[in-house]
Amino acid sequence: MTAKSWKTNQRLYRRRTALFLLAALSLGCASLNAQSILGRNLIVNGDAEAGPSDPDGHHPISSFPGWTAQGTPDVVQYASDYNIGATDIVPLDDGNSYFTGGRTQADSSLSQNIDLSSAAATIDAGTATFVASAYLGGFQNEPETAQMTITFLSSSGGTLGSTTLGPVTSDDREDRTGLWYRRTIGRVPVGTRSAGVVLTMPWQASSTNDGAADNLSLIVNAPSAPQSLLGTNLIVNGNAETPAVADPTIDR
Predict the structure, then answer these.
(1) CA atoms of 109 and 98, how far apart (whole Å)
(2) If we measure between CA atoms, which residue out of 145, 151, 208, 206 comes closest to residue 180?
(3) Which phi and psi angles does 227 have, rounded to 5°?
(4) How far is it, in rounded angstroms, from Cα 80 to Cα 87?
(5) Rg from Cα positions in the chain
(6) Is residue 23 exposed (0-12), middle (13-18) or buried (19+ Cβ within 10 Å)?
(7) pTM of the entire structure?
C-alpha cells in the first residue's frame, strides 16, 4: 500500500467513525427524549402553583402559565377561605392555590396541548399506558362543577381516543365543600402524537362560577420488565405489617 492510499483509507475511516458516532448520538438523544416524558406529570402548571393567584377571590388573575383561558377562570388561594379553604375536603398536597370558574356568571375553561411525539416508538408498539387524575369539586350545594377531558391526537390532529374525569356534582359531594379525587387508567392509542387537556367549569345558576379543581395530572408510562410470580408470597400484606396509606382526599 502506498503512503497516499494509506492516508486516503485513514480519512475514510475517520469519516465513517464520525458518522457512526453522530448516528449513535442521535439515537441516544431520541431515547433520552422519550424517557424524559415517561413516568412524570406532563400537564404544565396542573397544580395552579405557577404564576399569580387571587388572594381573596375578589381580585381575579389574567395570567395562567401553561394554559389558554376561555371565559373568566381564576386561581384562588386556599388561605383566603373563599369557597374552598384549608379546612374543607382538599388534597393532602394542596399547595397554596386551586383553579375556579371565577366571579362572573359565565362558563370558564383552561386548555393546553402536550407533545408526545418523542415517545412515538413506545406508543406505536401499543405498550404505552396513561394515568389521568384530578381533584374536582365545588362549593356547598351550588351546582357548578369541574371536569377534565384528555383527547389523544394523531400527527394530523385527528382524534384517536379520549377520557373524561368528573364532573363531581353537589350530590356526589353531599353538599359539602371541597375537591374529590378522580382517576382513570388506560392505553395510549397507537398513532398518538399529542394530547389535548381541557379543564371545563360551566356556570349553572349561582351568583358566581364555583366549579373548582386542583392537582391535574397526566402520566404516560412504558411497560416495566415482568416480575416472576414463582417463589414469592403472592398475598399482599399477609403479615399485617404494611403501614396504612392516607386517603388522597381528607376532611381536615
Answers:
(1) 14
(2) 145
(3) -110, 140
(4) 11
(5) 24
(6) exposed
(7) 0.78
Question: Strands 129-138, 209-221: parallel, antiparallel or unpaired by DSSP?
Answer: antiparallel
| CA pair distance 164, 150, nearest whole angstrom | 6
Q: Could you read off the pLDDT of 101-146 as tens digits, one per residue? A: 999 999 999 999 999 999 999 999 999 999 999 999 999 999 999 9
Residues in the chain: 252
pLDDT value for 177: 98
> pLDDT tens-digit profile of 126-138?
999 999 999 999 9
- Each residue's pLDDT tens digit, 187-214: 999 999 999 999 999 999 999 999 999 9
Of 75, 55, 88, the closest CA to residue 180 belongs to: 88
Which one-letter amino acid corresponds to residue 57? G
Question: Which residues does 136 contact at the CB level (< 8 Å), separation at least 6?
Answer: 145, 146, 147, 148, 165, 166, 167, 168, 179, 180, 182, 212, 213
Distance in angstroms (rounded) separating the CA atoms of residues 166 and 153: 21
Distance CA 9, CA 102 (A): 72
Helix (H) / strand (E) element for 12: namely helix 3-37
* Residues 6+ positions from 5 with CB-CB distance below 8 Å: none
Peptide bond preceding 167 in cis form (omega within 30 of 0): yes
Q: What is the pLDDT of residue 215?
A: 98
Query: Looking at the DSSP assignment, which residues form a beta bridge with residue 75?
Result: 99
Residues 200 and 146: beta-carbon distance below 8 Å: yes
